[in-house]
Prior knowledge:
Blueprint: H1 3-11, E1 17-21, E2 24-28, E3 32-36, E4 41-45, H2 49-58, E5 63-64, E6 74-78, H3 84-98, H4 101-106
Antiparallel strand pairs: 1-2, 2-3, 3-4, 4-6, 5-6
Helix pairs in contact: 1-3
Amino acid sequence: xxxxxxxRSALALPEVTERESWGQPAWFxxxxxxxxxxxDRLTVRVEDDGERLALVEQLPSLYSTTDHHAGSxxxxxxLDVVDAETLQAHLAESWWWAxxxxxxxxxPHLGPPxxx
Length: 116
């Protein structure tokens, strides 16, 4: 996967637009859905810091973090490792965690399995 795959997947989500954030391409509805951290890694939201740490521990070749993300619900995904289905699922879940309640109600199918 690459930035173009991330862009297509992010822009396919409801009400998402692209703009620059910290000098990198990023995708928002009102809040951040995803942002390129560098040329090879995409930042996405997960449920909480616990999930972020668990992902990094379970699959360090796919997920990583930085001191900047400590205590947050943001994790980095290696684009050269992730497959299309996982990338799309993470962006949809990231969209969900960033979405205000009105959008969550409008698009419940984008939420985590136990929520939508």
